Amino acid sequence: MNDFLSRELLNNSYQAIGTSLLILLIGYVLRKSASRSLSHLLFRLFKKFSKGTGHDQFVSLLIRPFQGIILLVSLYLALVPLKFPELMHLDGEEIKTARDIMHRVYGAAIIGVVTWLVLRMVDFIIMVLYERAQETEDKSDDQIILFMKDLIKVLVVIFASFFILSAIFHVNITSLIAGLGIGGLAVALAAQDTLSNLLASFIIFLDKPFKAGDTVNFDDITGTIEKVGFRSTKVRTLEKSLLTVPNKSLTDGPLNNITESPFRRVKFIVGLTYGTTSAQIQTIIDEISAVLKEHEETKDDFTVAFSDFGAYSMDIMVLFFVYSNDWEKMVRVKEEINFKIMHIVEKNGCDFAFPTQTIHVEK
Length: 363
Fold this sequence. Notes:
Elements lengths: L1 H5 L1 E2 L2 E2 H33 L8 H25 L5 H4 L3 H43 L5 H29 L4 H10 L1 H7 L1 H16 L7 E4 L2 E8 L3 E6 L4 E5 H6 L3 E2 L6 E9 L5 H17 L8 E7 L4 E9 L4 H21 L16
Antiparallel strand pairs: 1-2, 3-4, 3-7, 4-5, 5-6, 8-10, 9-10
Helix pairs in contact: 2-3, 3-5, 5-6, 11-12
């Protein structure tokens, strides 16, 4: 048995090769159970913060990063017994260079996986804070927490990148930042729109013109705010499509926050034919006013008036407010009133006008 184990393959004994394969196999087999155990152990640090809830979510978030760490550690332990330089015919300086490169790549991989683990913990912390924020009446803190999630994750990635450059590749961070400062003007000009949108996102959180869940209207677009991000805001339109709007567009132009209004304004024109008499118009105006006054969903502040002599119609302006800012309810109330207006016009023997032209032929 000893003779067999002492035999060599590619300058490595069978014993060394077998040990490496065994370490890799053990690491691969135990990665799930070990990562789950580590996640359970780490959850004890967050148990008080989360008040005992979210254990399953915490484990599911951290199990994959822990698996990556276990596999990288197993790979390192498996490579320790093996010999490579003789096989690759490297001299002393080349061996040193190859080992240095391998150590740096391995170190960068370890820091990358640890950063992944930290990002998952940030996801869990933000998830707990978001659930608590939803219990409050003020919904502005909901979108602030989601925004802070993205901000913290970006800062973690930047810090990890600088740490890899400094600790692993021995880059002078001070000189690097100074060099970035020299080229910062060119970068700022190239990313002018991105920077403007980023600044606009901070303006949105400070000024709070709207929050997640509010229905807004801007640039002939009406929709519900779903999420405010670094560069853009997600808006769910009335057609149920998801619209991505640059934050700068929301801060530079006028924006109507419909949710903040207790009423919905409705305005339209009832066009009657030119054969309608003044008495009929007055009767129609009085009856439409009575309908608006008696309707339970319309506000007392309404206007019904003979407004214009149009190109092909005599126009009655109808303006009223619905006791709700809900769009669907406004549409339903408007439909009910429209049907009653049709009945009033028909009852008085009048007709609705449509685009027409009268041609007089001179003899």
